[in-house]
Structures are given as structure tokens and as C-alpha cells.
Design goal:
Layout lengths: L2 H35 L2 H32 L3 H34 L10 H22 L2 H31 L4 H33 L11
Helix pairs in contact: 1-2, 1-3, 1-4, 2-3, 3-6, 4-5, 4-6, 5-6
Length: 221
């Protein structure tokens, strides 16, 4: 395969990863928005759409493996493909967390949320920004942005801890709120894990650029 053809196929793979990341980001936002609005139809749509995310992950993985098998890339090219293989797994797991949030919304039925949602949508906004920035750092080989994504994870952790303390106080003051508080705690945990996955992608970008795999932020949960 001529070098130009190989580069084209690798470029298309990266574009597919970018598209999958956009789909996942929308799924996260839709899940949290549906939860906030108590829109069970929209929540179910997020659940149904997760199958497409899974399918896209496997398609990209197959193309990565095919490129390795047929071209036997070396050094930098191989690092790119390996990084993409890991990144699509992270994206698929983020999609699972979005699906999980939607399932929680469905489990809540017609019941309103325990309290108006303020910090949880903020967590979603920060986590999806981290996702977008991590993919941007991949496409541009931007080490500065990749490191910034890893540092931003602390902000999401702080919001999670704030939500956790607030919901715990609800449960202590009124045991009848335990189930409703637990639902929101699960949602916050899923968003915290999405941010961790975005951090993992940024760490893969650093590996791609430097050849060194370093854990900058280790998950605390």
C-alpha cells in the first residue's frame, strides 16, 4: 500500500473516532436533559441509541485491526492505531454511562427529582467539554490541551463531592428521601466516571505523542 493510501485510511479512522465522540457527547447531554425535564420518552431514546454506539465502536476496532494485519505498521503509526483502539473503548463506555443515566430516569418513572438539578447539569457540561477537548487534542496532537483535560478532572470531582454531601444530608434528615437521593447519586457517579474516561483519552494522546503512557489522574472511586 502506498504511503499516501495508508495515511488516508488512518485519517479516515481518526475522523470516525471524532464522529463517535460527537455522538457520545450528544447522548450524555440528552440523557441529563431528559432527566432534568423528566422526559421518559427522550430517556428511552437514549437507551435505544446505545446499540448504535456499540456498533460504531466495533466497526472502528475492526478497521484498526485490519490496518495492523494488512500493513504491519511500525513505530509512530502503530502507536496511533493502538491509541485509537483504546480511545473507542473509552467512548463506548461513556455511552454506557449515558445509557445508565437514562435508565435511572426511566426507573424514577413520573416522580420528580428530589431537588432542582443544578450541579448535575454542570457536571455534565464539564465532562462533555473534557470529552470534546480530549478528542481535539487527539486530532491536533495537542499536549497542552491533553494535560488541561487531565487537570479539569479535579473540577468534576469537586462537584461530585458537593452533590454527594448534599444528597447525604437529605437522607440523614429524612430517610424517606433515600431512594430518590440514591438515584441522583448514581447519576452523579456516572458523570464523574465519564470525566475519568475523558482523562484516559487525554493520557492516550500523551502516549501517542511521547511514546510514554503515564497516569496523570488516578480515579478515586
Amino acid at each position: 500500500m502506498p504511503r499516501e493510501d495508508f495515511d488516508q485510511k488512518l485519517g479516515l479512522l481518526q475522523q470516525e473516532v471524532e464522529v463517535l465522540a460527537q455522538i457520545v457527547g450528544k447522548s450524555i447531554n440528552r440523557a441529563v436533559d431528559a432527566l432534568k425535564r423528566r422526559d421518559l420518552v427522550a430517556s428511552q431514546e437514549v437507551i435505544n441509541d446505545d446499540d448504535y454506539i456499540d456498533q460504531k465502536r466495533f466497526e472502528i476496532e475492526d478497521r484498526c485491526v485490519d490496518l495492523i494485519a494488512t500493513q504491519q505498521p511500525m513505530a509512530g503509526d502503530l502507536r496511533v492505531i493502538i491509541a485509537l483502539l483504546h480511545i473507542v473503548v473509552e467512548l463506548e463506555r461513556m455511552g454506557d454511562y449515558a445509557e445508565g443515566i437514562a435508565k435511572i430516569s426511566v426507573s424514577m418513572g413520573d416522580a420528580p427529582t428530589l431537588k432542582p438539578l443544578i450541579d448535575i447539569p454542570r457536571m455534565a457540561e464539564k465532562a462533555t467539554t473534557m470529552l470534546n477537548d480530549s478528542i481535539d487534542s487527539l486530532l491536533n496532537r495537542d499536549m497542552v490541551k491533553a494535560n488541561a483535560v487531565c487537570q479539569a478532572d479535579d473540577e468534576v470531582d469537586d462537584l461530585y463531592n458537593q452533590v454527594y454531601r448534599e444528597l447525604l444530608l437529605f437522607m440523614i434528615q429524612d430517610p424517606e428521601t433515600i431512594q430518590r437521593a440514591t438515584y441522583l447519586l448514581w447519576v452523579a457517579h456516572d458523570l464523574e466516571r465519564i470525566a475519568d474516561r475523558a482523562t484516559n483519552i487525554a493520557e492516550r494522546v500523551i502516549f501517542l505523542v511521547t511514546g510514554k503512557l503515564v497516569e496523570i489522574n488516578v480515579s478515586k472511586y
